[in-house]
Records
---
Amino acid sequence: MSQDLGVFIKTLFGEAESARSSKEKTWMKDYLQTKSEYEQDELKKIKRSKMYVPATRVKLNTVLTQVMDFLFPASDERNWDLKPSPRPELHPSVVAHYQQQAAMQGAELTPEELEKLLDKNAKDSCSAMCEEISDQLVGGSGRKSYRSVCKSVAEQKLKYGTGILKGPLVREEFREAYAVTEDGSWKLQKTESTELRPFYEDVSVWNAYPDANATRLGDCEYIFQDHIYNRQQVLDLKEFPGFKENVIRAYLLDNKDGDLDSYKALKLQQKIGSGETRKMDKRYRVYEFWGTLTGDQLASVGIQIPDEDLSEIFPANVWMLGDKVIKAVINPLEGATIPYQFDYFVEDEDSIWGDGLPKLLRHPQKALNSAMRMLLDNASVSCGPQVAANMSAFTQDEDPRDIYAFKFWPFRSVEDMNKALKFFSVPSYTNELMALVRVFNDMVDDMSVPRFMGGDGSQMRGAGKTARGLSMLIGAAHQILKDLVKSHDENITRPFFKKMYFWNMQFNPRQDIKGDFEVIATGTSVLMAKEVQLERMQTIAAITDNPRFEGWIDDEKLIKEICKNLDLPDGVLRSAREKQSWERERLAETARANVQALVEELENKGVDVQQQLLSMLQQQSGALMPEGGPHEARGHAA
């Protein structure tokens, strides 16, 4: 019966793979366009210059960098948060604890006092849950950090139109460490961690096969992910809970040279750009299934299902080699039948797959390449004269293509010399073609992000030459990025951290972090709040330049808030003591410069500077003395 389940799931995979085949052609074009390479059919048609302008790659990198800066600012501010529910549900033991404490002190809690205590407990637990989840997002022990995973998801989203995040799943971590054996020697061993950790990863679109009949992730009954493993990687699966070692070893024994089918191998070859097909030996295709199965199907592979539940539907996870089931379990994570999150660059209402930036720029990129090739082809033939040679006019051993200074030209006769060579020039259209290149470059900018977002300010005109105008242009250009950040909030951040919250409620042994919380995605709101706040602070800074308002604003606090809003690193701002020291040095330097200028001016006029200074000091001293002279001064002192 387990064989029947394997055949059933393999049939589903065939349907999903077939439904995805048309999209793979678009992905291949996206892949080559991002690498700035021509398709083989197109390359065969190009006879001269084969230059490829990497406009798509540059725009993709620019957008990716900007989006990552918004999602993960340098200030380490979270783009997610948790907050207690308006009326949080608390464990009865918490209420009993506070009532017992009050009773021990001979008091009785009023409803208002109890509500305040419970509200404080909910906030403390929520804060502890946030810290716990933040700790789980840090990479280590073979795990990628959440930031690194999100960068891969965002890159896939921009490149192919769809970014996929998988998880969180339950994972028992293994750590490799040296241990002393019985004979006293050291040996590298894997030790199993005693704690469970949430596992999450980015998944390439090339390895994901959703339900063939679904146009939205929420409509999927199942989703497949395939893994291309070598023999050792397949054997390593037996170390994880639930995998059947005997089935794995038997399958490897029956398929010593691997089982990677020719279609999958061909797709892998095309993706890496190889023009020839070769068999990929000793590689195995492992299928990972997430979806719903009946109790009867699960019971057929050894899962204990009560007789009355055999017709019920269960969320399940099944792994297969070929059509052999090597693992089958009921999905242990509550609230996550399919543990995948899909995010889109441009969503397609008729498909579960989106469209990426390369597809959006496909035609402008081709036009730009054509214009640049024409420019180079024309420049290559117009940069020097063309030569027409009458070969019969030269002696037999003479090659007219070998031209150099002071060359001796042997001709058959004087008449042949006048008929031997003719020089003419091909017209140059460099200016016209450069204008065409600029048109298509501007079109690429209009359909993606402006050039100045990537640091190129050579095309700035008008308002862009002023700080205020440039700020307004950048704010307008951020509209596209805001949409991408908002999409990430809705499709990745909110569902993922909701599942992370569920994971900790279900598997984390800490009771002090548990409670009734809500997930908040703050990426877009933080971005918009920062822009509004920065604009207001800049307005206030401009107002304080007016003498009428001088002294009303604390300049130190204002500049600190501006630097904080701009995510500038620590150490950029001077401390109050450093600022005072800098001001004293500046005043001293100014005074020294003024004295030096005065001395030079007096010397140029022929004045004895030293004598003049002594005279000035004597005059000042005399002005301070009483009219009666020193004796009268002593009398006054007495």
---
Amino acid sequence: MRRMWSAWGAVLALLGGGCDAIDLSGVTQRNAKTRVRPEPPGEHCRFGGQAVQSGLDLDRDGLLDDAEVTATDYICAAALPEVSTRTRPEPHGANCALGGQAIQSGLDLDANGQLDDAEVTATDYVCATTVANVLLRVRPVSPGAQCALGGQVTHAGHDANANGLLEDEEVSREVLACDEPASVLSRMRSIPAFTAPCDGDENGGSAVEAGVDLNGDTALEPSEVEATGYACGIEPSELKARHQTEPAGSHCARGGTRVDFFQDSNHDGTPDPGGFTSTVYVCHSIRVHDGMFVVTSPVDLVALEGVTHLRGELRISAPTLTDASLPALSVIQGALTVVANSSLRRLSLPALRFVGGDVAVRSNARLDSLTLGTAASAPLWVERSLLVEDNPLLPTLEGLAAVQPRDSITLRANDSLVEPGQLSFVTVLQGSVLFQDNLQVKRTPFVHLTRVHGDVRITNNSLLTAPFGLEQLTSVDGTLELKNNALLEQLAPLGQLTSVGQLELIGNPRLENTVGLDKLTFAGSIHLQGNTGLLSAGDMPLLQRVDEGFFVRFNAQLQRVHRLPQLRGTGAVTLTVNDALTSLEGFSRVTWLHTLEVLGNKQLATLGDLSALRELRFLNLQGNPALTGFNLGELARVTDDFVVVDNAKLPTCLATALAANVFQGDPLGGVHIFNNDDATPCP
């Protein structure tokens, strides 16, 4: 304390002496400055924060420069809640068809080291699949730019580390599927009197029906009906329908549409007191993936889990795939092609209701189980054609009972096919039917087919003894061909057939006659060829017209063409190399022909069975060694060609006389008579 006062005493002494005062005008004050900078997590702040730096603004530029910083204080952030996860078993159901795990995640807000129920903000599902070591992860997508109404994104891949979880680096296929509203339609239609389920009501009633507009044509087709009710004794004009959204619950697990039908006799838009009411539910969860989808591996197939509508084509061609099961897929707006899957054993799409193109299941060497749609539920409408071909181990088509193609059906070269099932919804086809090279099948599956606008070809089916399954067929606009069926011996199942564009019976060695075509009235043409066991042809009691011709060729044992009592005319009768043919009684009422052609029939002695024939354009008789006379007493005119050649027993003079009487063409260019019997005189 003494030293301090000594110093102040010296200062006072100077000030009190005679010296001038000290000049402080040149001393300038420097302002103190601070600045704040983010502080990353590190040694000063574990979770980051802010660095508050301070010092004098020595250069008086109004800023605290780095060189001016003399002190730094830190304001550190508190620890952030950690992200936690937990795993729960997920049962079989909407989120995982085969069960799996629910991976729940969120912030551990209370820092208790575990994820509580209230802290869960997101759930991913890791689902079991039918493919060994392949997992599926399903993540919900919130409504937004990707999916206006929300949806899901699925990831699939191999569980490389076998930990039961699908990690990001294991994902090899991603599929986005967006939720879209389904368009539900309804209709009312009449039920005739005394028709089930109104069979006790003489006034009949109404069926009330509802379903999803699968093909987008704004009309409820029979194949789209999912729910039905009945109002007996009430006309459709007395009924109205009201649609309401049905939330997820007991009626529809994922929601749908409630359709209330009610009686409104006075048409005021409200239900009649005490009148008929009925409610049906159309349950739907439309989850749409846009674009063509190609499956080349099991992982690709698994990634489609949960997709209900595919806006494009589905093509499955995966050599290592053994089981192709898509239980949720109901609509494919393009084609479905399953081809060259050398390991595939099972193909199952039980919910499928609509395919906008062809369905082709072809060249799957080990396929032995095939299910498309569920017949007990509703038909599977195929906008174009069905083709099942070259699946050598496929034993049955019973899993196709729901299929209803618009165009054509091809069932070919399925060597193990024994039970073809019944395509019960197939009644009319705009295209054709090909049933060929099925070595073990004994009948066709077309039990309700009535009309085919194209062809029906039943060819080379080794055990087929008759065209069983075609008992309802009435009309074929194109060709009805039964060809090279080794055991075919009868045509009785065609007993309802009334009209055919072209009937071809070719190369069926066990077929002895054509009995069974009892209702056939019209044929564009009839071809009987190469049926080595055929003894008689005809037996068509109602046949009236054969426009193009009746062609009988190379039937070695054929003895007669008979029992065509209504046939009056045809374009042509061509008889070629039928070695045992002796009788043409079936043509006895024919009065006109375009062409009569008789070639190489060894035992045919006369044409007298055509005694009613009056008019021809072309007559061609060649190589009939037993022919001795014409006996065409009514023939009055042959206009274009008269050819009688190489008939060893036919007197030439008979031929020249007939030509002179009936031929009306150019005698120099149109008459050809030679190599007949020149020795026998005429009476």
---
Amino acid sequence: MFDLDSLTETALDILRFDGEIGDTLAELRRHWGQSVPALLDTRLDHIVLQYRPFEHEIGVQALGQELSTLGWGLYDLDEEDEYLFVLICEAQKDDFEKQCRKAKYNFKRMKQRGRKWGQPAKTQNLHPVMPCQDVYFPDDAYYTIQEIAGNFASGIWIAKEDDQQGKFVADLRNSPLQPIRVQWKDFRELTYSQELDFYAAIYSSPYSDHVIGGKDPTRINDWPALTPRSMKKLGKLYWFCDRLCCGDEESLLFLTMNERGCENTQRFILSASDEECQLAADGQGRIFAQRHRRDSRLTCYENQDLNAYPFLRMKDYDALGNSIPIPGTSRLLMIKETWGEGDTKGNLFDLDMDNGHCQIVPLPGMGENLKIRHFTGDWVLIYNSSEDFRTDFAQLWSPKTNEILRIRSGMFGLQKPDHITALPDGQVVIITRHSQIGTVLHRPEDFWTFLRTANKPKKLGKWLRYSASYPNIPHTLPKSKGKSCQYKLSKLEEPVLKFKNLNFKLAVMNVLMYDKGLLKPRFDIWEFADEYSRRRIDPETEGYDQMIPEAANWFRRYPIPARLASEITRIDMDGGDEINCQLAPNWDGEDELFNIQAITPEELSQFPRLQRASIFTTQDRSVVPVFRQCGITVVSAYDVPFDIEDADADPQANAFNEKGQH
């Protein structure tokens, strides 16, 4: 007998919706690892790797399913907003379930739908891993990179044998990395000007902060001070052309720099504030300062003078410092979060600092808490600072081509990148952090080609313009006016093909729409989702184990002119067919989602020139004979003949064949 109340009290309590499957496995191991060695099996780590992009509940079900192959059942004793997990061994699970039912005790075994006890979890396709050369720090300490500037990184080192720790800098071009320990106290904010090939940073003395700088970070301990007077609690350092700028709790500092150092210093005293000052420059070289985080009035530095800027103020939690200029204009590119659809999303925001005109575009797959900065060339980097593996780590956007390149967490195995940057010569480096060894630097073998081949082609969405001027805009996305109606279906005034089985129709449409370009529009799930207004369709998170219903219904209703039937001479089904990718963009290809499980002679008779069909089906004894008796050679999609005798033919097909011979 089980003491159900005691089991509930000692159960592992985990949030149901906001968790990450890797953290859940870590908690299970911490709670029961010593008493249940099966939890340490590496198969569970593979499940984590495969299911991290999924919702937490889906990952938990996969974990429970895999545990059943190891002789353990994972049960939830709560049906509210949190899990109460208990582990029950295979020998006791039937008695446990029987006792729970008799006592009317809530329980649910974590398993995947359609899979029995002892069956492994469904395998998910992993994102390809980016080929890289890995570069390590020495093993005399744990090194963690915190900032990257130019060719150098800075961070913290912690000794392995004692309590010593400190800061370091390292040249990222070296192999292996050779950290230089920094003697400056509270060293931080390493930054770099590519125009001047000059570095700067901040250090603290007992009563003040100082800006230091130089050409060569390997001689960082000899760098001179750039500020003639001390300042208090300096914030972030910003480079704007030849200006090095920062603010403290009572002033703003503007240093005019050249390749040798500082040639002029200006300090403007402001009202005291305990909030960090944020700065940004537009494409005309004007520098704007945001003193307070919320509803902040701005000041503008122009022509070596600082004045109030009454035309604009920052709204809510929009961060002026999280922006880049649009060259040659009075505009900034920023990150702006909008509310709606039950959550908060980060968006790319284009703001004109002269008049407040603004437009916005969503960033699907990126979540919230986003950062933006220039990457290399004309590329803009938008990256995610959260630990959520279900979102992209970063996306690269080219304003010239509108191309989006996705950088996904799974591209680096179990680690999520801490940093990605391009050195001044264009070499891309990626930083990940490992619990046992600290920071590892990765140099991709062919960064750009890999991103283009590992992802489907993607463009930035449509910009949506606000009718009001900033900051008098809503917290939501503007309603799109004049949306395209290219996916509105009209009735044809000519004969159309008729289908009883959707998947056969999809196989035909893949040929006509994607292979031959004879059906318009060429269906794109992203465009369709943008046009669809009855609910928000998110192709990033939908279409894993079923077709997106609205897209499937669109194809079901699509009228195909009968005159195009003669274009179908061959059907070659493939798991990677474009139509499959549009209907179920995250499908792993493992189940029977697009199989032709039924077919009628009437459907096939519409295609007199169809000679050969390579199909997916598990109902070969009922499907294959219909093809054969309509005179169509049929093989499996793996190009293997079906082992079906003509005597096994479907009676319906036989009747149709006999009717056609009279």
---
Amino acid sequence: MGYRNLSECMCDLEAKGWLRRVDVEIDARLEAGVIQRRAYHTGGPALLFTRVKGCRFPMLANLFGTLERTRYIFRDALPMVERLMKAKADPAGALKEALRKPWLYAGAPKALYNALPRKVRSGPVLAHEARVSELPQLVSWPMDGGSYVTLPQVYSESLAKPGFGGSNLGMYRVQLSGKAYEPDREVGLHYQIHRGIGHHHGEAIAAGRPLPVNVFVGGPPSMTLAAVMPLPEGIAELLFAGALGGRRVDMIDGSRSPNGLPILAQADFCICGVVERGEKPEGPFGDHLGYYSLAHDFPVLKVRKVFHRPGAVWPFTTVGRPPQEDTVFGTFIHELTAALVPTVFAGVHEVHAVDAAGVHPLLLAIGSERYVPFAAERQPQELLTNAMSLLGNTQTALSKYVLMAAKEDNPPSTHDMPGFIRHLLERMDLARDFHFITRTTMDTLDYSGISLNQGSKLVLAACGPKKRELARELPQGFSLPEGFRDGRVFAPGIVVLSAPKHDRGRDEHDPRMEALAKHLEGVGGLEGFPWVVACDDAAFTARDWDNFLWVTFTRSDPATDIYGAGGFIHCKHWGCKGPAVIDARLKTYQAPPLEPDPQVEKRVDALGAPGGPLHGLV
């Protein structure tokens, strides 16, 4: 039986030695975030801050900080959920297994029953009330525009189809304070494009009605996981939370709620309100791409009540350049859903939204190439259909770069980064295999495009026999034009070099990059280097794969920032004859990278020093 609430989970983890109490005073402004990030990177336990400066509520950090701990939290129901996922992917195989080993599926009816939310008349969360300003005011990065809820469960229902079946539970950041908001009466609600709450909000706007929204914090851990689960449209996250949590989710009837919307009975906190027209600036906020997302107008939640349970604890995380605690969410979800990929995307066998590149900027995939099996040489055809499917469904639609290989060529796994990239570079046809989609939607948090939510995408699909041997050393006589320097081989077939600082405007090519591509046309011996990456600091970028992926794919927009030696456009198709050049410099219009506060870092150093209260934890 799973945990009813967060308190049961914490008691269990503490008994196992996976939760430690921190009784020294901790400041929610910057200090708590630094400690959480360090605890995650050291593989440390969950941390309960019992004394939060200026706040009466404890804070819980790093709850999902390791994959082992996350699996343990859901251990009771996880095996059956995994079997049900595999059964959906392969019904015939599941039936055979059930006939041979029926006991493996004995818990299936119970799991399906647990998926049904249960209406109750009351619950612990209604016991007490508070003001927004009394909640923990977490500020994670120095330039954040205020305090934020970083593990919220934002609940809304369809006005056209009210009830649990038409509900949405999402993790959309909530800004508790900031100069734009009326204290204790307004909070910011930042949801990105392609999010379920957007459909509900659109219905409310069309009907001229406010949208009721409840923000839950804490409660059963399965609710937090469900809020980030990329479920197909039409399947309520509440159902998944019950199945994964091993017990039905208790929801207090909306008649007891100030906005008419059901409330999670076992939540630690609930902010009840309505969203009306009248957006306000939200942000800046240090986000999971490793940069700040800047201030933009987003909806405002008019707060009607804030409830909390007795002994309420405020769970939180901080986000930043990957990997962070949310990386564990992604890995856990991938383990659950990998078998379902071919059922959602016909012809696609494996996908990998690359965490080190910020998730949405880079998607690697393996698909089928069966359209012309009798062809003398396999060419990307079905792969392009697969790519369009990936860009037209679920969260993969937000991908910026989609790199695809054919299953028939026996490529390495998409999780073998060096091997998969090498496989593509050996087979890519520089004149044929670049397929751009311009002036299209992109991830709200990605500032490399031409405006907020708008930029371009690139499908690079390669298949067939090897076309080149990748080089590992720069050719003799390798040279660069003035202003470019420090050319070095990062990996077979990839050159990284330092370029002059970017000084152009948004949505325009840089003549210096065009000059670099033109110069490379005259450099001999580059046949084994199909990729050249121009960046601000070649040494940093080439230090390891994490740096290379982060710099290359978070700082470039395909249509704006890809050039090529011998580049050409034929009937609106772009290609090149020599190396493709990716301009991965930090642009003048991009948000700044996240940098910690040195003084806060020193304070945490002292807390973690021998004899300090955090020694061995951070």
